[in-house]
Amino acid sequence: MAALLLLTACSSNEPAKSPGNPPSSSTSSSAPEALTPVTATALVAGLTQAGFKCGTDEAYALCTSGAASVSILNGDHPRPPVVSVNASGPADTAAAAIAKVLPKVLEVAHISQPQDIASWFDAQKGKPAADMTAGDWLVNYAAESDTEEPGVHLTVTDKLCKTACQAE
Questions:
Q1: Residue 127 CA neighbour count, 13 Å, CB half
Q2: What is the mean pLDDT of residues 37-65?
Q3: For the chain, which has fewer Cβ within 10 Å, the N-terminal or C-terminal residue?
């Protein structure tokens, strides 16, 4: 089964300031993390440094590790507009391939709430599709089984992206 993780971003990732609210003392991971944005080029460099093999085509950079591949929409955005992780084969096999690389992809891409996203992804086994929001990211999961190329797709989209947020 094929698995795809799509992480999309194009806007500033500066933390929101709320002067009237004191910091929470909760240890919950549900509060968005303030992470410095990384460009698509920096993400590709980071994945290469993490052991992925990377190349580019017209609109995307493609990085692979084992059975999983990561597609990154190229562009000059502060954060890459599209990042996706894909793996082919039966759902369980594809999901396992994605789960193996997902924490590193989220870390290198500076996606907020990586533990929440990874836990949520693990909980989607057996489902055909699902969505969640993590900070300013929209996360979409889809598993395809009755297609020519079965697989699992995880897409993370920057909800703040306004321009050139998808390949044309």
A1: 14
A2: 93
A3: C
Residue 40 CA from chain centroid, whole number: 12
Instruction: Specify the amino acid at residue 60.
Output: Y
How far apart CA 6 and CA 3 sit, in angstroms, is 10
Which tokens go with 23? Answer: 């910091």
3-state helix, strand, coil in the chain (%, to 5): 25, 30, 50
Per-residue tokens: 70: 């990561």
Rounded distance between C-alpha atoms, residue 112 and residue 132, angstroms: 13
Q: What ranges in the chain are assigned the alpha helix state H?
A: 40-49, 91-109, 114-122
pTM for the whole thing?
0.78
Tell me which DSSP letter residue 110 carries: T
* Cβ-Cβ contacts under 8 Å for 57 (sequence gap 6 or more): none
CA 65 to each of CA 69, 78, 136: distance values in angstroms, whole numbers, following the listed order: 6, 25, 27
Residue 24 has pLDDT above 80, yes or no: no
49 burial (CB, 10 Å; 0-12 / 13-18 / 19+) is exposed
DSSP-derived letter for residue 147 is S
Q: Measured in Å, how far apart are the chain's first and last C-alpha atoms?
A: 27
